[in-house]
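Input record, target 12 of the design panel.
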C-alpha cells in the first residue's frame, strides 16, 4: 500500500488526503494541531513542520510529501524560508517525491493570461517569498513539482471571496471587496486544486516544473450573483474597498497592509491558462454552480 505525507490541515490538505485515502492509499497528515478529516486510512499527527528531525522521522517510507502549509499571511517573508528549508531538508534525507501547493503571487503583474512557464518576476515581499520557495526546491536536485492555484472558492476555502463576500451575500449584507467588481478573475475550486495535486504526484512527467490548478473565470460580482441565486438570497450589494480604505484598516490589523502588494493592476483582468493541466494531467474545472452548491 502506498503511503503519503501531507503537511497542512486546511481545506485543500483535507480534500487531498481524502482523495488518496478513498483510492486505498495510506495518508499521514501533519499539522501543529493534529487536525484533519476522519478516515480509516488517514493518520493525524500533531507536529511542527519546522522541526526538521521530527518531520524527517514522520516522512520516512513515504512515496510522496505534499505540502499545503503556509505561515500567517503577514509573516511570509520571515517565516516561509524557515518552513520551506525544513521541508526541503526532509525531502533530501528521505528521497520522497515532493509536491508543493503554491499560488500566483510570484509572477508579479502581467498582461494577458498567466501561463505556468512565465518567469517569476514579482518584486513585492510576498511574491518574492513564494518565488524563492519554488526556485530553491527546483534547483535542489530533488524530485519536485508545484501546483499554483488562483483565489480559492468552495467549501472550506479561506480567501477574499470566502471571508469578505460569501457570508455577506448569504446573509443579505453589504460586501466590501478589495478587488474590482466587474473585471474577469480566475478562481480555483478547493476540490479541483486537490485533484491537481494528486494527479501531479502520480504523473512522472509532472515533476521538474509547475502546473496551474483549473480555474473558472468570472467577475466577483458575477460569482456573488450566482451564489445568491442558488441560495435564494437577495441580489448582492457590493462596494470596492479603495487603497485608502486598506491603508486605514492596516492600522487595526497587519493583515490588511498585505493587500497592496497583490492587488491587480487597475482595469486589468486576472486570467489563468490551465490548458496544460487539462491536457496532460487530465484535471478540468468543476462547474461553478456545483462548487457553490457545496458551499451552500
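The sequence produced for target 12 reads:
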Amino acid at each position: 500500500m502506498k503511503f503519503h505525507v501531507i503537511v497542512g490541515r486546511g481545506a485543500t490538505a483535507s480534500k487531498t488526503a481524502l482523495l488518496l485515502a478513498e483510492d486505498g492509499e495510506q495518508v499521514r497528515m501533519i499539522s501543529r494541531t493534529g487536525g484533519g478529516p476522519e478516515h480509516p486510512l488517514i493518520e493525524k499527527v500533531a507536529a511542527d513542520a519546522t522541526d526538521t528531525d521530527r518531520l524527517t522521522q514522520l516522512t520516512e517510507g513515504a512515496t510522496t510529501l505534499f505540502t499545503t502549509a503556509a505561515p500567517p499571511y503577514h509573516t511570509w517573508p520571515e517565516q516561509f524560508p524557515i518552513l520551506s528549508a525544513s521541508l526541503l531538508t526532509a525531502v533530501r534525507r528521505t528521497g520522497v517525491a515532493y509536491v508543493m501547493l503554491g499560488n500566483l503571487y510570484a509572477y508579479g503583474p502581467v498582461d494577458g493570461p498567466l501561463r505556468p512557464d512565465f518567469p517569476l518576476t514579482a518584486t513585492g515581499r510576498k511574491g518574492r517569498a513564494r518565488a524563492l520557495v519554488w526556485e530553491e526546491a527546483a534547483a535542489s536536485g530533488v524530485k519536485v513539482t508545484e501546483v499554483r492555484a488562483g483565489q480559492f472558492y468552495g467549501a472550506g476555502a479561506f480567501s477574499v471571496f470566502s471571508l469578505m463576500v460569501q457570508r455577506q451575500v448569504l446573509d443579505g449584507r453589504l460586501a466590501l471587496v478589495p478587488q474590482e467588481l466587474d473585471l474577469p478573475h480566475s478562481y480555483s475550486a478547493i476540490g479541483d486544486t486537490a485533484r491537481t495535486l494528486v494527479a501531479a504526484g502520480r504523473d512522472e512527467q509532472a515533476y521538474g516544473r509547475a502546473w496551474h490548478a483549473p480555474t473558472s473565470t468570472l467577475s466577483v460580482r458575477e460569482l456573488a450573483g450566482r451564489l445568491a441565486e442558488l441560495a435564494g438570497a437577495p441580489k448582492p450589494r457590493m462596494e470596492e474597498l479603495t487603497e485608502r480604505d486598506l491603508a486605514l484598516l492596516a492600522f487595526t490589523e497587519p493583515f490588511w497592509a498585505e493587500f497592496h502588494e497583490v492587488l491587480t493592476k487597475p482595469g486589468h483582468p486576472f486570467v489563468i491558462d490551465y490548458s496544460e493541466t487539462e491536457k496532460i494531467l487530465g484535471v478540468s474545472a468543476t462547474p461553478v454552480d456545483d462548487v457553490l452548491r457545496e458551499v451552500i
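Residues 3-153+184-218+269-295 form a domain with the Rossmann fold fold (CATH 3.40.50.720).
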